Amino acid sequence: MQTGNKVKYLSTTALSKKVNLDVKSxxxxxxxxxxxxxxxxxWVLTEKGKEYGGTIKKHPKAGKYIAWDESIENxxxxxxxxxxxxxxxxxxxxxxxxxxxxxxxxxxxxxxQKAVKGWTVTKLGLSYGGQQLEYEKTGVPYVIWxxxxxxxxxxxxxxxxxxxxxxxxxxxxxxxxxxxxxxxxAKHRAADGHYVRSRAEMLIDNWxxxxxxxxxxxxxxxxxxxxxxxxxxxxxxxxxxxxxxxxDSKYARRKEEKLKxxxxxxxxxIELQDADIQNLDDVLPKKLLKFGIQAY
Length: 296
Prior knowledge:
The protein is of the alpha+beta class.
């Protein structure tokens, strides 16, 4: 930050020229460092970004844009790194799985999404350092990852689950919500064999099963926070939460914390209340259709 003299500001485009990087790379670095965020297809300045000297300027023709204290150009975040970048094939070799399974696994975790051809990185994937590229000859998109991505906690847990390996980390994560799980034992058996924690969850599970919608129960969210969703639908990447204890203060705080995380990562969320349980045939098809899932 400058002191004494008048602060000079750079647009992100001007900043990219100063640091000798293309604009997309600069935006990605700023996103990774949580200085900016992507909301409704627009870049917004975060509180951390403001601390770094970011501000909002207005251009008479271009409108509002993010500008930076010019001293940011000297920040180490823009310095070249020798960190290796890995494609899907390199990931498959590291984890010992087929190269054809890697992108579907990353997609299930919400890090990439299927394009008409190839794969594109998601907002969540960007936050973990994913970079969007295209094959020069075909233009087909693909994603590469920094070497540190190999240690991504949720990715490692998933690979262990797929290969049938039990890890201490996974057990520790489950212990973080032990109080809730002990209080509400999963003793209701749904039609598909899932054991769930309430009659309402059993009815939801049965409805999904009878509608032939593939779903997981108590699937961990693909984030660093230790949060489990009630139901996860791989098709559409949709999470379902049933809120059934509105009068419990601890549960209300837990609900608030979970909703913040869903919003933070932009996950597709369907919320169900007690009043919805007896009308699932009317309620769920409409909610699912918003995410492109045909129930019948």
